[in-house]
Structures are given as structure tokens and as C-alpha cells.
Amino acid sequence: MGNTVSRIIETEILVVGGGGAGISAAIGAARSGAKVLLVSKGQVGNSGNTIMIGGSFAMDGHSAYYDYGIKEADKDFTKADLYESIIKDGFYINDQNMVEQFVEESPAIVYEVVKWAEEAGKPFDFGLPATWWMSGRMMGSALKQGLSSTPGIEHISDVAVLELLSDGDRVSGVLALELNTGNFVQINAKAVVLATGGFQPFSLKSTNSDMTGDGVAMAFRAGAKVADMEFLLFLLTALEPQDIVGSILPLMLVTMPTFKYVATDRDGNELTMPSQLKEMETKSEICKLLHMVYYGKTVSSDKKTDKGGIFLKIIGTEEETNQAFDETVELFRKFYKEGFYHHNDINKVRRMCLEKGTWEVGLGNEYSVGGILVNEKMETTVKGLFAGGECASGVFGANRVADAVTEMLVQGYRAGITAAEYAKTAPACGCGADSGNAVAEKLMKVLDNEGGILVNEAVRKFEAISDKYLNCYRDGEGLRTAIKQYEELEKELENATVLCKDMAYNTELMGLIALKNRLLCSKLAAYMAEARKESRGLHLRLDYPDIDNKNYLVRTIAQKDGEDIKLSTREPIPGKIAPPDYDTIEYERYLLETGIGLENLQD
Question: Of 2, 252, 262, 412, which residue is 20 to 30 A from 393 by alpha carbon distance?
């Protein structure tokens, strides 16, 4: 066997991922006395979805008021209120030990990040009930402040982790690729924490393009169980003007009470929702789910617009519309160049809406609720492997409304602490260079392929399958077709051709590796979506439109079985709140009668 691995690095705790979950995990592990190495395929604190933040994170108001002396907070919004809201919004399949961990441990890390932001000279903007608004760059600055002030952490950027390495029945390292040099590196560790984010199967997405499911796919291949992959969150996303396609600016506008609109299909037919739910649009992130439910059928039908979406028809007066845009400019004035949201020119969109009277928007993929199966300590089902943030699962059940930024921080921090405790008694890694060499040589064989499908072509093919069959609304026939076509594409990728043979920053090769991870995650999602013959949360079935608690008040779990996927189910871990006692309920009735929708948007 050749000496493909250029060097071996030894550490106690390896954290994979340079965003909020990864940095929090590294800090938690280092504070617990461990030697920590943090690796990121982008720049630590300045890559992944962390830099895409254009909103807020929060704790309960009671903790903010009494524990941290924030007198502007709403002290009547308690941990119990937050806990109940997460369960109801999650359609009762949350593991309640995970919800307990989220609610109890989040105030401390949220407050600490707020203080880091102040120390970095990038203070966040406070809002009710106990919410802080910021940009992704501001969050990145806060996290880097926390990282730099914590001793015992080494971090390396531009290193892509490709595969987990096992020593018997435990994970004890990884094979990684230095992107700038093309050199393979083996990193041995007593414990590995995955903080790699979610996955994006679709052509229209509102997040960073490197959300490719790497951690979930690697964990699954290493024998870890994954769960809830069928639950994918979509939200209103710009389809015009061309320079902001993929922006969530439409969502920001419709949450402004002065932005008066009706949604229509390509023929001008109005898409309606009950007034009780429409009122939630300006109060809660539940609006994302409502847009999926009431606009998603059109997006999944031949009534969609030419670009694959719907129209927002402006019905307010010019004064009202200008006020909505003015309020949006003001909301983000402290975080971005005035008049912009990220790099989106808000006033350019204003002029377009006033001139045309419509805005063509789609439903873009933002977040994957499912991921690696973990417990409240962030332990996976494989020894030595831990996970937190979007690559993990369990806290949000079938639908995410509570804060994903808070999730990445509180779960990452706990994962680091747990990994450090494990490492205190874990044996040293037994992986020699042969472990990494074997994986590296297998990966490099793709460079010998000739005449196969090209990577860009394969990506387009993959996204077309996902767009058609795994989108907002699904049905059994379409999902079975998706599985068949995904598996055919997997076989086709065995002979995929990478034209560039140079290993140094080979974006084509990295694109192929990322595609294989996205494909595996999406296949798992399709398997689980086909098996869940009901509608629940973010999983909407045209052929099974009702919520079925008799048969599907369960979490769906997948595990590798040789070359096959083995599905199973289990009831969610119970806690303070009992599930409803009915067997079935119409989906819309659940929305109207359950009291969903944590009111977490700023007035």
C-alpha cells in the first residue's frame, strides 16, 4: 500500500466544522481540559451557514430577566412556555430529553455569545421576548472572540474531512484533504465531534452552497443511526431579480404588517390560508411552514410560474408598500450597508415591486431537521462519535420554529463537554497510516475514470430528481421513483469523470465528493418520506394528507445494513408534555386548534 497520507496529526478531541456548533464544541471541550483540534473546510468563523445568518437567536425571557439582569426582557416568557412551544410546533415527535437540554442549557451559552459580541466590538441588537438580532459576520466575530480567548484549541482552515476512521467498534479519527495543497492528512483522536451542518438536495436553496450533508453521510457510513431525514424546511425565496435569486428577502418583507399582498398562481388565482393563520405571518417563524402548506401545492404543480414559484401580488397602497420597505431597511441598517440585506439591494426590489405590482418568488430549501441520531448528551450510536447542531436530530421533531442558531450553540457546547469526558478514559487511537491510506487510495481512483458522467451534469441531474419528487409536497409513487433514480445515479457516479487531475484545490473532485454525500442524505430522506404514510410538520403527502398518530407518532431511523438501508421506528422519548389522545386529525385542523407558533419575530 502506498504512502498516500502525507502526515498524521494526533489530538484528543477533533471537532469537524468551523461554524457556530463547531466553535462552541471546541470551547466546551477545551474548558473541560481536553486538547482540541478544530478543522473546517472553509475559514473558521467565516464560512458555512453561520455567515448566512440574517436574523436572530434567543433564550427565554424569564432567564434573561432574572438570571442575567436584562430588564428589557419579557420575564413572563418562561422556560416552560418555550418547552411547550417546541413540542407543539414539532408535532409531538420531539425527543423531550433533547428539548429539556435545549431549554435548560441555552441561556448560559446565548448570554456568553452576546458578551463575546460586545468584546469584539460588534454588539447585537436586543428585541423581545429575549432575542438578539445580528448579521452572520457579526456572529462570526463573536464566535472568533470566544475562540481566541479560550486556551487549548488549535484550529486549521481549508481542510475537508472526507471520511471517519474506525478502530474496532469506535470512531477514532478521520481522513482529511488539505484543499490548498491536495495532500491527504490523517487525524487521530480519542473522540470526534461532527458539527458540519445540514444538507441541501434542491436547485433552489437559501443557504451556503457547502451545506452538503458531509457529517451525516460520513456518520451513516461509519455505522451511526440517522433519523427524521424526511423533514426539510422551505421558505419564501427570491426568483427575481436575477442577482438575488436564492435570497430570503421575500420572507423578510411578508413579515412586515405593512406589506400587503396576496399570493397567486401563474394564472392569477389567489392562494388563500385561514385568517387565523395569516395573522401569524408577522409574529412567528411558523410562517415558513404555513407558506409550505398553502403555497407548496402550487409550486409542486403545473400552476407554478415559469421560474417554478408563485407571484406575490402587491395590494397595499404605494405608501404602505414604501413603509414596509423602509422598515426592512431600518431593521438591517445596523448590520449591513444601508439599504441592503446581505448583498441584496432592497431599494432595487422596492422599485421592481412598485413598477410591476408583483414579485415572483419560490420556496427555497433552508434547513434539514433530520440528521445523526443523538441523545441529550450529543452522543451518537457509535462510540467515540458525537454530533451537534443541524447535522444532529431530535430536538425539533417534525418542524423547526425555535432558534437554529441557539441550537447550534447549545448542542455544540454540550457535545464538546461530553466528548472531553469520554476522552478522559478512552484508549489512544489505534489507527495506523494504513487506515487513511486505504480510504485515500479508494478516493483517488476516480481520477482514473474516463468517459463517465461529468460532475456538473451529475449535479444538475441530482437536483432535478430532488426538485421533482422530494419537494414540498410528495406522494408515494414519486418517492419510489426518486429512490430508483437516486440509486441509478449512484451507480453512474462510480464511473464519474473528473477532468482536472491536479489534487491542489480540485473543486471538481470536491464537488463530486459533496454530491455523493448529498445523494446519500437525499436517498435516506426519500426512504423515510416514503415510509411515513401521513403528513406531519414539514413532511407533506398529497396521498396521505392527514396526521396519523395511531401509526406514525414515531421517529423514523435508518442504519447501514451491509450495502442496504435498514429502516426502523421508535416512539419519541416522553417528558413533561403528553401527546394528544386522538388517532388522526386533519392537518389544517391541527394548525388551527393546537396553538402552534412561537411568537418570535420582532414587531
Answer: 252
Q: Give the pairing type, strands 310-314 and 261-264.
A: antiparallel
Give every CB contact of residue 242 below 8 A, 6+ residues apart in sequence.
none
Measured in whole angstroms, the distance separating CA 505 from the mean position of its chain's CA atoms is: 26
DSSP alpha helices (H): ranges in 120-224?
136-148, 214-221
- Distance (Å, rounded) from C-alpha 544 to C-alpha 566? 23
| DSSP per position, 75-100 | TTS-HHHHHHHHHHHTTT-S-HHHHH
d(CA 485, CA 487): 5
pLDDT at 47 over 70: no
Helix (H, G, I), strand (E, B) or coil at 253: helix
Indicate the pTM of the whole model.
0.95
Which has the minimum average pLDDT: 3-7, 83-87, 447-451? 3-7
SS3 per residue for 361-412:
EEEEEEEECCEEECCCCCECCCECEEECHHHEECCCCCCCCCCHHHHHHHHH
Cα separation values, 268 from 263, 271, 361, 594, Å:
9, 9, 14, 32
Classify domain 437-540 by CATH number: 1.20.58.100
Cα separation, 23 vs 39, whole angstroms: 10
Q: Give yes or no for a contact between 134 and 124, defined as CB atoms under 8 angstroms apart.
A: yes
475: Cβ contacts below 8 Å, ≥ 6 apart? 541, 542, 543
Strand pairing of 36-39 and 153-156? parallel
Q: pLDDT tens across 413-460, in order? A: 999 999 999 999 998 877 777 888 999 999 889 999 999 999 999 999
Under a CB-based contact definition with an 8 Å cutoff, are residues 312 and 484 in contact?
no
- Among 524, 392, 504, smallest CA distance to 160 is for 504
Does pLDDT of 54 surpass 80?
no
Terminal Cα distance for the chain, rounded: 63
- pLDDT tens for each residue of 206-249: 876 778 999 999 999 999 999 999 999 999 999 999 999 999 99
pLDDT of residue 603: 41
Distance (Å, rounded) from C-alpha 13 to C-alpha 193?
A: 7
Q: Which residues contact 162 (CB under 8 A, 6 or more apart)?
A: 174, 175, 176, 177, 218, 439, 443, 513
Q: What share of the chain is helix, strand, coil (3-state, %, to 5)?
A: 40, 25, 35
- Give the Cα separation of 366 and 211 in Å (integer): 10
Mean pLDDT, the chain, whole residue set: 94
- Whether residue 180 has pLDDT greater than 90: yes
What are the residue boundaries of the structural domains of the chain, listed by start? 234-366, 437-540
Give the number of residues written for the chain.
603
CA-angle at 474, arms to 472 and 480, nearest 5°? 140
